[in-house]
């Protein structure tokens, strides 16, 4: 395990560590570096034979956090507000048959679930039902259903516009199938795009990146088997292909995610490690000119494992890397062609070979700093960055919004009055300390703080992660 700088050690000592800290390269029997182990629910606990995708939901009413995990036979919902003692609340069974593939995304307090199972379509589940589960685990029913397609490999949602993009269906040649979900209980078909090969996965954003030609447009970045596909989907009735990005030694362009400045698109090829013998390879595209994407550089990790799903939070790239587990890669110097692994938690201790076992996906967007890993063989893991391994037993008492924030952030409480708020940077330095007259809501000016990750401590007890854009 890497040595911790003295100032970091002081920072950590100020708080209680997580349940099983990463010490000498091990946490809870799993290899690690800088990531603490909080808890695990096995496949047996979840009543399934295999696991797949994962996502998360934070209840805006009380700030409680919930993990959602795709399983062979449905989607599981887990209360992780106490991450050391997660509560399996229940399962939404598959709409038709069991399947190796299931995918979930969230919009406006609803979960949208698709699967490769024949005739499955899209299930809609009201997540607010999780607030009052009397005798968990419950067997849930779907609240709405969309049958405009049958099997589906993946679902993408642009939360800013209220549109879902189902990819890998039998419609539109496997290209994105548009669904208006602005009224979640009444999904409406909205067209599709068939102009550029089968789409395996995608990210859709309201574009505010460096290419002024597309400012304010809704842009889809697709991982389309042998290429990156960039499509303007603003006009659902007339989507326009913009460009393709190609790279060498292509085997299966699987999934990608934009950096937060939208200058780079980081993708993984799912079969290149086994076909060409690379160590875990990540391809970084420069997409600053959407009409002319090109390979900026390639990064190879330290193991032979196959990469699967990756997501960006600030200057970190969270990569689920099958048999190598979760890998966190520093992308702060991506402009100069430099990336480096800084932390990991290996959910598959046996080996790091190029096979399809271990970590399928990761969800790193909880404000608490809790990270969810869904493992094909071992179920649901909850882990946390060692530097954020803080005692957060009252995580449900306070809600923070927005998060990420820019100039102001509001802290609200349903019961416990807010008397003090402290903010620390990642070096453990206190950058803000404010006292209040014990109110239930406070609006805090953070405009003087630089963009990055911080830890907010409320009433000298509860800790939250705060991201500043």
TrEMBL record:
<protein>
    <submittedName>
        <fullName>Regulator</fullName>
    </submittedName>
</protein>
<feature type="domain" description="Secretion system C-terminal sorting">
    <location>
        <begin position="401"/>
        <end position="466"/>
    </location>
</feature>
<dbReference type="Pfam" id="PF18962">
    <property type="entry name" value="Por_Secre_tail"/>
</dbReference>
<dbReference type="InterPro" id="IPR026444">
    <property type="entry name" value="Secre_tail"/>
</dbReference>
<dbReference type="GO" id="GO:0005576">
    <property type="term" value="C:extracellular region"/>
</dbReference>
<keyword id="KW-0732">Signal</keyword>
<feature type="signal peptide">
    <location>
        <begin position="1"/>
        <end position="18"/>
    </location>
</feature>
<dbReference type="InterPro" id="IPR027589">
    <property type="entry name" value="Choice_anch_B"/>
</dbReference>
